Amino acid sequence: MLMRIRPKTDLRTLIALLAITSIVITLANTLYATWRVQRMVLIESTLEANRAYATKLAATTEVFFQLAQSQLHYSANQLGKDFDNPELAQQEVNRLREQTSSFNSVAVVDSNGLVKAISPESLMLKGMQLTSQASREALVQRQPMVSKPTISAANNLIVFVSWPIWSNDGRYLGYVGGTIYLKKKSILNALLGEQFYRDGTHVYVLDRNNQVLYHQNSQLIGKTVPAIVSDQARQESTNGEVQLTEQGTAKLAGYAIVPTTGWMVVALKPTDVTLQPLSGLLLKVLKNSVPFALLTLLMAVIFARLIALPLWQLARKASQMDTQGVSGEIGGIRAWYFEAAQVKRALLTGIGLVQDKIGRLKSEVQTDPMTGLLNRRGLSAVLDYFATMHQPFAVLALDIDHFKRVNDNFGHDVGDAVIKHVANTLRTSARQTDVVCRNGGEEFLMLLPATSTEEARVIAERVRTSIAENWVDHVGHITLSVGVALWDTDQNTQEQSLKQADAALYQAKNAGRNCVMIAGQDALVSSITR
User: Fold this and answer.
1) What are phi and psi of 446, to 5 degrees?
2) How buried is residue 373: exposed, middle or buried, by Cβ count under 10 Å (0-12/13-18/19+)?
3) What is the pLDDT at residue 188?
4) How does residue 526 score in pLDDT terms, banded at 50, 70 and 90?
5) Calpha distance 304→308 (Å, rounded)
6) What residues pair up with 445 in beta bridges, in sequence order?
């Protein structure tokens, strides 16, 4: 396992990914916003168009009823002058039916409900008494009126328009009225049916009770359907718009009220038909947006490389700070924007501080006077430096085996000579970047920067073997026990790593000494004869 882990993603890739993600998200948001806005515009414009269309038809229907009543009014005035003249009555009903085609049939009825004249005469109602609800209402109300849709004596669904007849001296004589058939050909069917229908739009008419009075599907005429708006909304506004579902299909409806009759004219269009242009619109937006998006993406990649290049070069040199002449190479990097310039300045400053730090580490304050190795204070400074630079390292904890016997048997002077001998051996065995410290008494530490577990084990075995094979005056052969641990900036603290190395050292002692133990692994015991 290598201690120095190189990140898999560099700044240039991150910036490019950020740019690509931003462009894709922006394009998606643009398409979604365009879709939402256009959908809303299509729905609102269709609702408004249907409302205006229904209002136009309602106004046309209102004008028709006003003209029909005007015609009846004129005839009523003529009949009031000579009501008992049967020829005059027949002439008027024939004229009303044939002159304008406003009515399917026309009748003159006296105050008792008897038919005095009728057109067409084929209905054979002359002399008969009308008992329909519309006829009774006309006799009772004695005023101009448009009846509710009703079933006639001939079993037709009709609307009856009437006007009272008054004599010159103010006596009520009866009424003249015309019928409009709702299920058969009539002028009302012509007004509503011969309109321009486009893109699936269709029209129907409801009375106050939501009974169908006109529909393109004649089978629905006379049937009651669910109300599309409430009675309150119907009373508060003469026209409006609403979205509804009819037979499982979403539709956009505009409606308008005919003032004279209270009928509702409804114009509908399926929502799916309204929204059909959306797919083509999105394709056009996408077709026009993609080239600019690709151009923007290319520019983003180029700029990402320009932005990342100085930082990438500085990052490479930062990993080579212990290389000869690295300061000059860093100085030659073109840091053309503020952040890169600051990083460059920090690296150059850091190299100076490192050199100063190394100089101070070698000072007498941080050096053990007997061995010339770093003491605890020097060790602390090195650990602080490694922590600041986030420099991982392997640590070897070394201890002279049976050192107390040396002092007891040969005296402290010989013991000091043994310690100096071990220190010199460690110094000569260490690499240029390794740090050797005397931790106190017969204990030593070696810090091996950027060293893997296997490399640390090899170095530990080399040191142990070198000590074991050398002869020491007055003492003979001595041995070392070694504990190995690693410090990675992302896994544990330096203190924990030092404790792990110390624990591995004690495992080596317990395993028989003169061996190397690695924290968390089995013992690697030397084969040298103790």
Assistant:
1) -125, 125
2) buried
3) 66
4) very low
5) 6
6) 397, 437
| pLDDT score for 516 | 94
Contact criterion met (CB below 8 Å) for 256 and 55: yes
Tokens found for residue 507: 């495992």
CA angle 509/511/517 to nearest 5° reads 75
Contact yes or no for 62/146 (Cβ under 8 A): no
- Rounded Cα–Cα distance for residues 274 and 267 (Å): 14
* Torsion sign, CA atoms 215, 217, 218, 220: negative
Do 55 and 239 meet the contact criterion of CB atoms below 8 Å apart?
yes
Q: Could you count the other beta carbons within 10 Å of the beta carbon of residue 510?
A: 11
Mean pLDDT of 56-81: 89
Residue 374, φ and ψ in degrees, nearest 5: -65, 145
Residue 165: what pLDDT? 93
User: Tell me, what DSSP letter sits at residue 222?
Assistant: T
Q: 225: which DSSP letter?
A: -
Question: CB neighbours (10 Å) of residue 412?
Answer: 10
pLDDT at residue 5, as a whole number: 45
Cross-strand partners of 109:
115, 175
Contact 468, 526 (CB under 8 A): yes
- Please count the other Cβ atoms lying within 10 Å of the Cβ belonging to residue 445: 23
Distance CA 88, CA 464 (A): 142
Token pair 């070198």 is found at 466
Q: Which amino acid is at 358?
A: I
Distance separating alpha carbons of residues 379 and 398, to the nearest angstrom: 15
For the chain, percent of residues with pLDDT exceeding 70:
88
Of 509, 508, 530, which Cα lies nearest the Cα of 521?
508
Tokens of 71: 């015609």
Answer whether residue 524 shows pLDDT above 70: no
User: What sign does the dihedral 364-370-376-378 (CA atoms) show?
Assistant: positive
User: Rounded distance, CA 58 to CA 67, Å?
Assistant: 14
- CA-nearest of 328, 324, 330 to 343 is 330
Which has the closest alpha carbon to 464: 404, 409, 511, 413? 511
pLDDT digits (tens, 9 = 90+) for 174-221: 999 998 887 776 666 666 665 555 667 788 888 888 888 887 777 787
Query: Do 231 and 216 touch, CB atoms closer than 8 A?
Result: no
Q: What is the β-pairing status of strands 515-518 and 480-487?
A: parallel
* Tens digits of residue pLDDT in 314-336: 777 776 666 667 777 777 888 77
